[in-house]
Write a structure and sequence with these properties.
Length: about 350
């Protein structure tokens, strides 16, 4: 803070002797990092899932499909200090001047911590850890057994606790991790593929297969017994994916044209789709070219769009017929399409 106010005058005379490594950071401006925007605020902005750092880590930008949402948020200016006239509230939230101590008293009734309460806390922690690894749509016997073994508690107690605290599972926790996977590039591509397969199975009720490991195949294949169709999904863990000529040919000739090489069933292919962190402006035309060449409907969906679908599905479930229509729009699926 002092450096930002006074500049170089705030530095000790022997600054570079004390911190010789500073010279190696930027020879022209070795103390330039002191002027950088705090990394913490960038982390918080990314946590909102409204903005993302560029791949070279030099900038942070609003995601294209989130611009309207950001405009709505910025249109309303909140009060800088909440309830400023209530002195007790101000004191407990913001503290006092340096001559006084902040009121940190717990004004609620104290309660004795019991072994049961400690066991419940351990079960919560174990459940949250699992919910970050996979989408949990409901409490299953396998999950109960796993958590019981992890925390060393009785199976019946674990079941009662989980059914009481998480009767509908915990999809939301996993979606935070899923969002991050969509921007991590090739190094984490396999995790992104497997997570997508699990998501379509657990949340949307498809038979879902991770077929990407076979070779010259899409990443995920989904099948709907109720509607009698299959679909293929290719994951791209990039912030601005564009369908190159090579990827175009792979989709046309290997994934769609070579369907029989990795699927021996009789359900017709209803659509192909790409899921990525974001897409280039030319994505609609690129999707249309594949549709024209193959006669198969297609789409592109951002990870934010998938999250939006999961949220809406939790309120009113999509039918497999409706999902087929969404993934068959022959362009990028926009948030307004989700209904």
């Amino acid at each position: 803070m002092l450096f930002r106010q006074k500049g170089e005058a705030a530095l000790d005379k022997d600054f570079f002797e004390k911190y010789p490594s500073s010279k190696g950071l930027n020879k022209e401006n070795p103390f330039g990092n002191l002027m950088d925007v705090a990394n913490t605020i960038q982390n918080w902005l990314e946590y909102t899932q409204l903005a993302k750092r560029s791949e070279d880590d030099r900038a942070i930008r609003i995601l294209p499909d989130k611009t309207d949402e950001v405009r709505v948020i910025l249109a309303e200016t909140p009060k800088f200090i909440d309830r400023p006239a209530e002195h007790e509230f101000f004191q407990r939230k913001y503290g006092l001047d340096p001559k006084h101590k902040k009121d940190l008293r717990n004004l609620t009734e104290a309660s004795t911590v019991t072994p049961k309460m400690l066991a419940e806390i351990k079960i919560k922690q174990a459940f949250i850890a699992e919910s970050l690894k996979q989408p949990i749509g409901k409490i299953t016997s396998d999950l109960i057994d796993k958590i019981a073994e992890t925390v060393g508690a009785e199976t019946r107690f674990v079941e009662t606790t989980l059914m009481s605290l998480y009767p509908r599972g915990a999809i939301g926790s996993f979606m935070t991790e899923y969002f991050e996977m969509a921007f991590k590039g090739r190094d984490n591509a396999l995790d992104f593929e497997k997570a997508t397969a699990e998501l379509f199975k657990t949340v949307f009720g498809f038979e879902s297969r991770h077929v990407g490991a076979i070779g010259l195949t899409p990443d995920v294949m989904i099948l709907s017994d109720s509607e009698g169709y299959c679909g293929i999904i290719d994951n791209k863990a990039y912030s601005k994916y564009t369908i190159s000529n090579d990827h175009h040919n792979r989709m046309v000739h290997n994934y769609i044209g070579g369907l029989q090489n990795y699927y021996d069933g009789k359900m017709p292919l209803a659509f192909f789709s790409y899921i990525a962190g974001g897409f280039s402006k030319s994505i609609d035309g690129q999707i249309a070219n594949i549709v024209k060449e193959t006669g198969v409907h297609g789409s592109a969906v951002t990870v934010s769009g998938i999250i939006g679908m999961v949220e809406k599905h939790s309120v009113k479930a999509y039918s497999h017929a409706r999902l087929r229509d969404l993934f068959s729009v022959d362009r990028q699926v926009m948030l307004g399409d989700l209904g």
